[in-house]
Amino acid sequence: MLKQFTVIEGNIGSGKTSLSKMIAIEFEANLILEEFEENPFLSDFLEDQKVNPLGVELQFLIDRFHQLQSPTNDKKPTVADYFIEKSLVFSGNNLSKIEKNLFDSYYSVLFDKITKPDLLVYLSVNSDRLLKNIKKRGRKIEQDLTARYLESIHQSYLEYLKSKTNESVLILDVSELDFVKNPEDYALVKDTILNYNERKTTEIIF
User: Of 98, 122, 155, 202, which has the fewest CB atoms closer than 10 Å, so is most exposed?
Assistant: First the structure.
């Protein structure tokens, strides 16, 4: 059964948006997609991660807060392709210590005001597969991303998610799956999500 509020998270190019859309369509759920293109700092930052990282992270934090403050206005389930906690992952990876301290002070105020997911799913994908996906979809602002940067984000995600031992977190290694083109892969991933009922962090490698 699809939870009332399910989040599909993942690294850049992991397929989180595609999977969120597929599940939302099948179950007629509300859909929340991150509006990353609205961030005016992002393009320059993706070309050079030393260019205004604090502006990037604060803008994302504000945008995510506004979207997630009240994700559902009816009884239909909701699926989102991100959660505000990704701000902690990316800011920890991208900001200096003094910038991170400032960022965290804003984050702590906003986090308590949003609805929390009933299940957080993380799509784990190796860097080679991520780079192939990024190249294939052809977004210009992403083409300079490196395997090293993607791997650092991935490790930050895993470290953070595995610390959430009292919440429902499902880590799925989908590096060898293609749930967009292969119906059997989609069914495998979907059924794993629907049948997950434990309140702990669980890692599954298909």
Answer: 98
From residue 125, alpha-carbon distances to 45, 75, 116, 177 in Å are 23, 33, 24, 9
Cβ neighbours of residue 182 closer than 8 Å, sequence gap 6 or more:
none
**Contact at 8 Å (CB) between 56 and 99?**
no
Total domains, the chain:
1
pLDDT tens track for 31-85: 999 987 778 998 888 888 889 999 999 999 999 998 888 666 678 999 999 999 9
Domain of 193? 5-205
d(CA 52, CA 206): 39
CB proximity list for 52: less than 8 A, separation 6 or greater: 41, 44, 45
* pLDDT tens-digit readout, 77-100: 999 999 999 999 999 999 999 999
